[in-house]
Specification:
about 230 residues; mainly beta; Lipocalin; 3 helices
């Protein structure tokens, strides 16, 4: 916290994510993430930065013709149904402006980013799905997000408890500037924004948290543990 005597520390973080993606979040997505990060307290500013690795499974579920619009070819999609391994490694970081007292702080405004380079079977499957089979097919291995957040933390006798609210969007032209022949999607292009809700509790060197991630075509529940390994 802002008032702590510790001004910098290193952390090991592990997270399990359970969620769904695609139309109606029908495709199950499971992943495990490990991160090694460093945090610094610069008075009225706090910052963190680190590197992480994610591995998981994405299941393409079969579709039928009911309810599909003319930008979806369910026959082609069903040829690729099944579970596919995916992974990604890269950088995470953020900075915030903070104020508060000895027992309470408000991280009034912060910005954060996550930059990942994808690998695994799932990206190869996407490369084999033609544009005519789905509304949007993103084949780029790079996936990045940029967001803003606000957070409050209360310090008790033995624990610290906080609540964080964040929102943002994806980075890269592959998720923007779409050109559709379908009139509806030409006037209403897909949105790849997100928002997050996070509750966390710290005791000694351990911080446990649960987080919800929500987007128009995806949602996930994250359960994680953070351990301070050094000052």
């Amino acid at each position: 916290m802002h008032a702590d005597s510790i001004k910098s520390a290193s952390y090991l973080n592990t997270t399990i994510s359970l969620g769904g993606a695609n139309e109606g979040e029908t495709d199950p997505v499971y992943s495990f993430t490990g991160n090694l990060s460093r945090s610094n307290n610069f008075g009225i500013f706090q910052a963190y930065y680190g590197a992480g690795l994610t591995v998981g499974s994405y299941k393409i579920k079969p579709y039928d013709s009911v309810g599909n619009n003319n930008t979806v070819n369910y026959t082609i999609i069903n040829q690729h149904k099944g579970n596919y391994f995916f992974g990604g490694g890269g950088f995470d970081g953020g900075i915030n402006f903070v104020t508060g007292s000895e027992n309470f702080e408000w991280r009034i405004f912060g910005i954060e980013t996550s930059l990942r380079q994808e690998f695994g079977k799932y990206v190869h499957v996407r490369n084999n799905i033609p544009d005519s089979a789905a509304t949007v097919v993103v084949r780029n291995r790079f996936y990045g997000t940029f967001g803003m957040f606000t957070e409050i933390v209360d310090k008790g006798r033995r624990t610290e408890t906080g609540f964080k609210l964040g929102f943002g969007g994806t980075i890269g032209s592959d998720y923007h500037n779409f050109h559709f022949t379908d009139s509806y999607f030409a006037q209403n292009p897909p949105s790849f924004g997100y928002f997050t809700l996070n509750v966390h509790t710290t005791a000694n060197k351990w911080t446990g948290y649960i987080q919800g991630n929500f987007a128009k075509k995806a949602a996930a529940c994250l359960i994680g543990m953070n351990y301070r390994i050094s000052k």
